[in-house]
Amino acid sequence: MQNSKTTQLDGLLGTIAKALVQEKQFAEIKKEAIELQAKLDKLKMILPLDKETDLIFRAVQQQATTSGLRIMRVAPRGTIDHEVYTEWPIDMEIIGTYHNIGVFLDKIRQLPRIVNINGLKILSRAPEGDASFTSSVGSTYTATTFVYKDEPIASAAPPAKPVK
Predict the structure, then answer these.
(1) pLDDT for the residue 109
(2) pTM score, two decimals?
């Protein structure tokens, strides 16, 4: 009887020790999950949600206007889906001075959201005369922002096994 009780006690102590190790691991995983969620929330500030894209491109257009540029054309293109985000490119054409285009690009760089300017082409328009002071160059480019897909991602972790 004594051996049976000792064996049972040893088994229970072993189960308790395993449970304590699992509890410590769970606390570490929980801490890591909280840190990762904070990191994700910070990245979401840079990578906007779908409903914010219009505001971002209005900000780009506003930056062009306040930089002394005239917007000639805005043509949205089709979105490009990726696993976690979507690219949203818009072709734009502006007219102004070379210096004003530089000011505009610097303002875009400082936006709190990611907006890439790709395929920038600058062409001479009015090399002399009165127009050269306001529209000496024309520029075409593609402004692209990236939209975060706020969809739950299936967990790759196996379900937790109960402690026996």
Answers:
(1) 85
(2) 0.58
